[in-house]
Amino acid sequence: MTHIFAHRGSAGTHPENTMASFMEAARVQADGIELDVQLSKDGVVVVIHDETVNRTTDGTGWVGQMTYRQLRKLNANYKFKQYGFCPVPSLQEVLEWAKNTSLLINIELKNNLVPYERLEEQTIELVERYGLASRVIFSSFNHESMATCHKLAPHIETALLYMEKLHRPWSYAHTLQALALHPYHPTVDRSFVEAAHAHQLLIRPFTINKEEQMKTMFQYEVDGIFTDFPEKAKNIREKTLRSF
Questions:
Q1: Residue 209 predicted with pLDDT over 70
Q2: What is the DSSP track for the chain?
Q3: The GP-PDE domain covers which part of the protein (predicted)?
Q4: Closest C-alpha among 39, 19, 36 to residue 106
Q5: CB distance 37 to 91 below 8 Å
Q6: What is the pLDDT of residue 244?
Q7: Averaged over 31-42, what is the pLDDT?
Q8: Is residue 49 annotated as part of the catalytic site, yes or no?
Q9: Mean pLDDT over the full length of the chain
Q10: The dihedral of CA 218, 221, 225, 230: what is its sign?
């Protein structure tokens, strides 16, 4: 069955990458959550997508130039003002909560533009501390970072994010010992999924928000999708399975 990952939590209905969004994903019984991590100025692994706080909070500035205390003062409720004050979470806070759920957790390392020193080591340490290695997937557009993660923690799955069509991406993934490809969904068709599966690779396209896209991906039998609307995706998955 195709797993449904709540992209930045239930980002279509709740403030992205906040506890409110992750809790909503758990409430609607998504199979997993996806979140993004960076480092604060004082070395705390924080959960936020953009390299600056400008879009998703009421502040301005670079994440890596702000302390964790400064980041916590910002309201990350973005366009969902009805949820009141939503602080930027630390990864520790999310994992402390997630350990009591059955959710899979895709942690995207946002170090393709800003080279955060020791982001891999600190993220791995937190995952191990909470005993979540078997439920975590590391992903990144920074494939060097994924190679580093595999070297440091070969028992934790790594996945390669990418935007454009690649020639024989399974061969490339195998050189990095990645177990999954996370492609931009327009690059995915049935023959690609079948070829990747034949090479023992998992396929989880992003970001699938439209009903027809969801139906198509379920029919392709991809291993997972990332969506801002996990409740909608669950309903469509159920209908699609019944139609087979």
A1: yes
A2: --EEEEETTTTTTS-TTSHHHHHHHHHTT-SEEEEEEEE-TTS-EEE-SSSBSTTTSS--SBGGGS-HHHHHTS---TT-GGG---PPPBHHHHHHHHTTS--EEEEEE--SSS--TTHHHHHHHHHHHTT-GGGEEEEES-HHHHHHHHHH-TTSEEEEEESS--SSHHHHHHHTT--EEEEBGGG--HHHHHHHHHTT-EE--B---SHHHHHHHHHHT-SEEEES-HHHHHHHHHHHHHH-
A3: 2-237
A4: 36
A5: yes
A6: 65
A7: 98
A8: yes
A9: 97
A10: positive
Over pLDDT 90: what percentage of the chain?
A: 97
3-state secondary structure 20-36: HHHHHHHHCCCCEEEEE
Task: Choose, from 7, 143, 150, 182, the residue flagged as catalytic.
Answer: 7
Q: Where are the domains of the chain?
A: 3-242
Instruction: Verify whether residue 155 is a known catalytic residue.
Output: no
User: Looking at residue 240, what is its pLDDT?
Assistant: 85
Question: Could you say which of 49, 143, 150, 182 is catalytic?
Answer: 49
Length of the chain: 244
The token pair that represents 226 in the structure block? 């990332």
Query: Which pair of tokens denotes residue 121?
Result: 């080591």
Domain 3-242 has CATH 3.40.47.10: no
For residue 235 the two structure tokens come to: 């309903």
Amino acid at site 214: M
